[in-house]
Amino acid sequence: MRIFSGVKPTGHPTLGNLLGAMQRWARIDQFRSDDPGDALFCVVDLHALTVPHEPAALRERTREVATLLLATGLDPERCTVFCQSHVAAHTRLTWIMESVVGDGELRRMVQYKEKSARQESVSTALLTYPALMAADILAYGAEEVPVGDDQRQHVELARDLAVRFNTRYGEVFPVPRAVRPPAGARVMNLQVPTDKMGKSDDTAVQGIIYLLDPPDSARRKVMRAVTDGGREVVYDPEAKPGVANLLDILSACGDGTEPAELATRYASYGALKSDVADAVVAVLEPLQARYREFADDPATIDKILRAGADRASALADPYVSAAYDAIGL
Ligand code: ADP
């Protein structure tokens, strides 16, 4: 069973990225096979080109995200950590995926609709992003893709494209499926709990906890989180999205106790917020300490990423060659 997932270096990673995806990847790595080629985690830097960007900032963010991946506990001896742009298979397979996907399918993607809304013009890459994402997954024959809820639709499309390719041209790709974490699959902005906590948002930044926020600042953001009317702590994402978000965060930062069960332990919003702040800080502090250790040793990070890219290329090339062959190239 092979697993693939990635994170975009479009901004500073958030608590949403950690709880919905990165923390989960580090845990998967501990109980899956010992073959480092069975779990691949990638800084998807090509995806960052879909929106306007500064080259120097992209390079810095890519380094920050790679360092954070290692700081979460991903062990390069037991999984493969690399940068997407270092492995040519991703772009080689994207063209094949673009020949299989319909433009209507791409235009229907929620993320495309949201990001292109109210823009006079967007890059073609923003539209074709899901074809690149399908290539990311299928190039490794990955079967499981652990992602937060916002990426499920793109994984569904990758699934459809694998089936379509196999039906038209012959069996090449295993059919992947999205895997969601039990809690934290959709962490919401603490100030606008009806919007997801997104790293590239430039509004409501006080509602975004960045993984490298000083712990005091993260604590303040939790204590100032918008809560809902009433006083009772109940888990009701529809009627009380702010409180439900805090309970989700507490569940994902802690031992995984169900949010509804956690709700029964609190008589006030204040007590809940205080425990959420403690739980968030308890997750961030060791993560940041490990981040600083890795950041102080850039040569080791370069070595890990180079070795990861070599291993990833060796795993992807047979799938890409088989796809080229099957399609008549
Ligand atoms: P973004 O730019 O929105 O952070 P990424 O594609 O880089 O998106 O996200 C990397 C991973 O983090 C994906 O699996 C995504 O589903 C997950 N993720 C992003 N934001 C959240 C969130 N607010 N809650 C849960 N998971 C999230």
TrEMBL record:
It catalyses: tRNA(Trp) + L-tryptophan + ATP = L-tryptophyl-tRNA(Trp) + AMP + diphosphate + H(+). A motif ('KMSKS' region) lies at residues 196-200. Keywords: Aminoacyl-tRNA synthetase, ATP-binding, Cytoplasm, Ligase, Nucleotide-binding, Protein biosynthesis. A motif ('HIGH' region) lies at residues 9-17. Homodimer. It is an enzyme of class 6 (ligase). It comes from the Bacteria. Its EC number is 6.1.1.2. This is Tryptophan--tRNA ligase. It is found in: Cytoplasm. GO terms for cellular component: cytosol. GO terms for molecular function: ATP binding; tryptophan-tRNA ligase activity. ATP binds at K8, P9, T10, G16, N17, G148, D149, D150, V187, K196, M197, G198, K199, S200. L-tryptophan binds at D136.
